[in-house]
Design brief:
The structure holds two protein chains of two kinds.
Chain A (H helix, E strand, L loop, with lengths): L1 E4 L9 H5 L4 E3 L6 E3 L9 H10 L5 E4 L2
Antiparallel strand pairs in A: 1-4, 2-3
Chain B lengths: L2 E5 L3 H12 L5 E5 L31 H6 L3 E3 L4 E5 L4 E4 L4 E3 L2 E4 L3 E3 L13 H10 L5 E5 L3 H12 L3 E6 L6 H4 L1 H13 L3 E4 L3 E5 L2 E4 L4 E3 L2 E4 L3 E3 L15 E2 L5 E3 L2 E3 L4 E5 L4 E3 L4 H17 L11 E6 L2 E7 L6 E8 L4 E8 L2 E8 L3 H12 L20
Parallel strand pairs in B: 1-2, 1-7, 2-3, 7-19, 9-10, 9-15, 10-11, 17-20
Antiparallel strand pairs in B: 4-5, 5-6, 8-16, 12-13, 13-14, 18-19, 20-21, 22-23, 23-26, 24-25, 25-26
Helix pairs in contact in B: 1-7
Classes of the chains: A alpha+beta, B alpha/beta.
Chain lengths: 65, 396
């Protein structure tokens, strides 16, 4: 599975970092999300799914490869 | 449980549907929405849509492919008009009664109108497209109500070169929500950008060529946007036996009655983290509560209390305000970092002896998240400020 971020949509809420801190971070200057691990291990799928679902900008997807 | 009906096809309803499937619910799933569109995102309506920065095709919350993978019967353009909690059916406008074992109510809110019901409202995509078609450089938009929505619309209209008058009955906009100092900073921000802000001014009615103020004075305008708060969409639940009190009343599990749960703007539930009943109209909250309601519906007695730290943001000009926690009813407001005039600050809110909220702009994300964590663990007001090194912890 691969994590996709539609960066121009990101509103810098940081909710993804709260849900999945090993997979996401935020840029210091504007808070826009950064994907630390585009291919997270399976044990983090629940966290990533949570982050995708809670993203207030619908900017994240977890896609099957 | 074989059949779940979710009423309300916006962020909360969609999150509920997705969570039900992710958690293994394989029964029949119906998602009902009264607008003629598949689930779409509302926050951009007052920003990117109004400013024409985005086309409407960027609004859908999920692709057609993602929606069809959910195996949900999506009934858009369908209005739910009643529920029979004993027979467990939802009645829709066509007269059909849809049976359910589990029901999730996510019908949101609608904008409050002024007495004559004239002027633009801004809640739906159609509202936004209608208003947008009337806004051109040089046209005069009068916004009634300087809450977050009205303020954002005013900022966007200035950005496209409209003349903007912002009329607010309170002496300081948003003071009841964020305190006087932050409210005054926002007033200054709008005045600097050329908005004619008139506080302490009540509007009696919208008229053909503008508005008539409570004192009788008329302010002329080409277009009037009324943004004076919202009303939960619970009319269709009248007489159902479910408790309605400024929202559909739920317990801390988001349960409103046997097999009935609620999520999003419409839900008034008891948030154990703050020990109070609340109704939250924020985008992130809608998704979070949609997920919680879906899980608790499936788990029944093994459900978990829903105890989130509410979050919202507001974009006004080049400033992004972000807030965590529950600011309403606070006892004290204190600037804890930065400077309001420089628009780089953290302002903290005390309720009782606890830190219950922060609002910030221009602050490093890591620092802001550490304040969120402090709110999540019910930090005492007189503790030392949280430090960014604090490990991230998941909310209860």
């Amino acid at each position: 599975m691969r994590v996709e971020l539609d960066e121009p949509k990101c509103v810098a809420s940081g909710q993804c970092v709260v849900e999945a801190p090993d997979v996401f971070d935020q840029r210091d200057e504007d808070g826009v999300a950064v994907v630390l691990d585009p291919h997270p291990p399976e044990e983090l799928y629940d966290q990533v799914n949570e982050a995708v679902a809670i993203c207030p900008a619908a900017a994240l997807r977890l896609v099957r490869e | 449980m074989n059949r779940v009906v979710v009423v309300g096809a916006s962020a909360a309803g969609l999150a509920a549907v997705e969570t039900l499937r992710r958690e293994g619910f394989e029964g029949d799933l119906t998602l009902i929405g009264d607008e003629p569109y598949a689930p779409y995102d509302r926050p951009p309506l007052s920003k990117q849509i109004l400013s024409r920065t985005w086309r409407e095709d960027r609004l859908p919350l999920r692709s057609d492919e993602d929606l069809s993978a959910l195996n949900v019967e999506l009934r858009i353009g369908t209005e739910a008009i009643g529920v029979d909690t004993r027979a467990r059916t939802v009645k829709i406008a066509s007269g059909e009664a849809l049976p359910y074992d589990g029901l999730i109510v996510a019908t949101g809110v609608r904008p409050r109108a002024l007495p004559t019901a004239r002027g633009h409202l801004l809640r739906t995509l159609d509202d936004a497209l209608n208003l947008r078609s009337r806004l051109e450089p040089g046209r005069h938009l009068l916004v009634v109500g300087a809450g977050f929505l009205g303020a954002e619309a005013a900022a966007t209209a200035r950005g496209i070169g409209c003349r903007v008058t912002l009329v607010e009955p309170a002496p300081v906009p948003l003071a009841h929500a964020v305190g006087e100092d932050v409210g005054r900073m926002l007033s200054t921000l709008h005045s600097e950008r050329g908005v004619d802000l008139r506080t302490g001014t009540g509007v009696a009615e919208v008229i053909d060529d503008g508005v008539r103020l409570v004192g009788g004075e008329v302010i002329e305008a080409d277009e009037v946007l009324v943004s004076v708060g919202s009303v939960p969409n619970t009319d269709w639940l009248e007489g159902s036996g479910l408790r309605l009190d400024d929202g559909l009343v739920c317990d801390e599990y988001c349960s409103a009655g046997p097999g009935v749960y609620a999520a999003g703007d419409v839900a008034r539930w008891h948030n154990p983290l703050f020990g109070t009943s609340m109704r939250v109209e924020h985008r992130t909250h809608a998704a979070e509560q949609g997920m919680a309601a879906a899980r608790n519906l499936l788990r029944g007695p093994q459900g978990r209390p829903f105890a989130p730290v509410p979050y919202f943001w507001s974009d006004q000009y080049d400033m992004k305000l972000q807030a965590y926690g529950y600011l309403r009813g606070h006892d004290e407001v204190a600037l804890v970092e930065g400077d309001l005039d420089e628009r780089r600050f953290i302002v903290a809110y005390r309720t009782g002896d606890r830190l219950t909220g922060v609002i910030a702009a221009g602050i490093a994300p890591r620092t802001l998240r550490s304040w969120r964590q402090a709110i999540a663990r019910s930090a005492a007001w007189d503790e030392d400020p949280p430090t960014p090194s604090e490990p991230t912890r998941r909310a209860a």
